[in-house]
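Protocol step 4 of 6: structure prediction from sequence.
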Amino acid sequence: MLINKLGKSFVFTTELGGINGTEIDESVVKAREYVGLDAINIHDCPNARLRMNSIMAAAVINRETGIETIPHFTCRDRSLLGTQADLLGAHALGIRYLLPTTGDGPQHGPYQSKAVYDYNTARLIEVIKSLNQGRDANGEVLKGQTQFTVAATATPAAVNLDAEMDNVLKKITAGADFFQTQPVYDAVQALKFIEKAKAFGKPVLLGLMPLKSLKMAEFVNKNVAGVTVPPDILTEMEQGKTGFEVACEFIRQVYRQVDGLHIFGMGDVAVTNKLIAFTKELQG
């Protein structure tokens, strides 16, 4: 079980992405193709685009494959009342891990809907932890209690690392149990983040997003907030180094210092499996 490995053994997680429409069988088949994976994250309508409910999709994938799932759960779409009802339902469906996020605002998507944002991410973590104690958001006693383990995000490549560590501490104070970070390409920056994060005593799974091409690397630099591909890596890729080789070199430099990897494989099961196998080889 993931909960028994966190902070004790090296952990591998990845992201399945949101499920478009009703065809969840395709996602189940893909999930079964992963080798050596400890859990799969399921997105909650990323970029404010319609996808299957992350809780329900995660429950189906877990039931069909036996792989533990970590559904994302946004502040964007639910009132405080609706949030608590959904969380109780998630627990009844067997969900035991959650990743609370703010959620991309509706302006990023195609629908003329209004964001709710009754609470921020830290407050959502507090609500989840309150349910774990058998109490609702007002402190009223419930019948029974939930058993959620809470993941949280962090940005190792943040320009202001001290401010980012303040955010990490706020999430830990609210009750976050472990972190799955945004992708990072600069190993020196990653290790600097890890050194600071270790002081808080929570497991950190470092984000790794293999670059498919030089064009993708340039796109990431221009368009993905909080993620930067260093100039030396761009130069190496211009000279023919592959994104997979870049990822392997990064792993070599950081794997001894982290609790695991969170691989943003963008649906490429084969590359994700190769990175897991490569890391395990390094570990002997």
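Step 5 (inspection) to follow. Strands lie at 11-15, 39-42, 68-74, 97-101, 149-154, 178-183, 204-208, 260-263.
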